[in-house]
Amino acid sequence: MSEYQVTSLNKIIRGAKRGTYNKEEINKILDDTFLCHVGYVWDNQAIVIPTAYGREGDTIYIHGSLKNRMMVNLLEEGKASISVTHLDGLVLARSAFHHSANYRSVTVFGNVRKVEEPKEKMNALECILNHMVPGHWDNVRRPNEKEFNATLVMAIKIDTASAKVRAEGVIDEKEDHDLPIWAGVIPMKEVAYEPISEPDLKNGVDIPDAVLRYVNNRS
């Protein structure tokens, strides 16, 4: 079972029993969504930005415009930290103090580089799109030269990471168990609804199988 080494950077301090450094578990959490949050500092101001990503092995790809200040900053610094979170349930306790949530979260730390080799850059764009909807790259027009050149792609090598997971019920004080107050968990999940086709589609253009599979898997 391969794990990331625990360091002062990725060590989980609070709620350590819910932490894991197992690479397989971390990759599973990363692969179950496509939206991450990236932290950086601009003009002495801390900023956090959501963005789409794709994972291939131990590399995470993100993309943006050539003048995207987040990406420009990260390339200058050479390091990045990103996080993803899945909300799996609301944990409603008898006491206000013990309300919580069930979740799966990952924080990644890694070195940053600009992707310049054309083949890797195109593969990275494919990775990001397919991470959002698996297999959908085969249904779309590829970026033309102008679009390709106007897009900045960045690779974040996962040097270390950690995950934190809560998947349990209410933890109330024993003396509160006799209170006439409801306690329990409201499960949560991300749901996809039936695709809505654009009204100006050409006749005979059907919803791609990749889209239908995605909806079916998340309905």
User: CATH homologous superfamily of the largest domain - what is it?
Assistant: Electron Transport, Fmn-binding Protein, Chain A
| Total count of domains | 2
Distance between the termini: 33 Å
Number of DSSP-assigned strands: 9
SS element count, helices: 5
Judging from the principal axes of the Cα atoms, what is the shape? globular
Mean pLDDT: 96
Q: Which segments are poorly predicted (pLDDT under 50) over 5 or more consecutive residues?
A: none
H-E order: EHEEEEHEEHHEEH
Estimated helix fraction:
10-25%
Largest sheet: 9 strands, antiparallel
Structural class label: alpha+beta
InterPro entries: Pyridox_Oxase-rel, Split_barrel_FMN-bd
Protein name: Nitroimidazol reductase NimA, pyridoxamine 5'-phosphate oxidase superfamily
Pfam families: Pyridox_ox_2 (PF12900)
Indicate the topology.
Elements lengths: L18 E2 L2 H9 L3 E8 L2 E8 L1 E3 L2 E7 L3 H9 L1 E14 L7 E15 L3 H15 L12 H5 L1 E16 L17 E4 L21 H9 L2
Antiparallel strand pairs: 1-8, 2-3, 2-6, 4-5, 5-8, 6-7, 6-9, 7-8
Defining traits:
219 residues, alpha+beta, Pnp Oxidase, Chain A, 2 domains, 9-stranded antiparallel beta sheet, 5 helices, Pyridox_Oxase-rel, Split_barrel_FMN-bd, Nitroimidazol reductase NimA, pyridoxamine 5'-phosphate oxidase superfamily
Short summary:
With 219 residues, the protein is α+β, with helices and mostly antiparallel strands. It is 21% helix and 35% strand.
